[in-house]
Specification:
About 25% of the residues lie in helices and about 30% in strands. The chain has helices at about 20-30, 50-60; strands spanning about 10-15, 40-45, 65-70, 75-80. Strands 1-2-4-3 form a 4-stranded mixed sheet, with helices on one face.
Length: about 80
Amino acid sequence: MTIDHSSQYDVILDAREDSCPMPLLKTKLSLSKMEKGGRLLVQASDPGSMRDIPHYVELVDFSLLSVSEEDDVYTFLIQKN
């Protein structure tokens, strides 16, 4: 099942070709450039992303709106608070 997030995000970050720690670093950089209330959709294939990205989002008190995994691609929808 494919989830259509197209109406739910402002920026998409495709980090599927990157290995740890790049998906997390690119997520941090993208969020730092976004306005408060902005939503970032991150796609990553590195398994460490399932641990690293939710942990970071919790540390900085942003909102992790959804997490999914399909065909070894991890998708995160994050809102900058």
